Amino acid sequence: MFLDYFALGLLVFVTLVIFYGIIAIHDIPYEIAKSREHPHQDAIHYAGWVSLFTFHALWPFLWIWATLWRKERGWGFQKLQQEQHDIHHRVDALIDQVEQLQEELKQLKAQQKPAVSPTHDAEHREEDN
After folding, report:
1. Domain that holds residue 44
2. For residue 51, which of 40, 58, 99, 123 is within the disulfide window of CB 3.0 to 4.6 Å?
3. Cα 36 to Cα 85: distance, rounded to the nearest angstrom
4. Would you call 76 helix, strand, or coil by DSSP?
């Protein structure tokens, strides 16, 4: 008789823990959104409740949606565009430097060729033999 009541109590306890655990898990994206001061935190919260009825099929998308926003950078796209713009200008500057160095290299090679005389080459060939 005692074991029947113990088993019933254990069943009720486990059911309540699972029920509240599921509710706590579904609120994680909302808590993330709230801590980041997300502009859509209410929508994330309501979608989390809807996700309960879809067996948490929406939950991963809500988590991603909640984590994309940061107060200091917003969605992050402006910073990405600025970084791409800066990188583009750096690459252009490097291309200009490479072209300048190639031109200087051509000039140095052109200056070096007349300095080598054909008789000088012939003397080296005789020494090698």
Report:
1. 1-75
2. 58
3. 28
4. coil
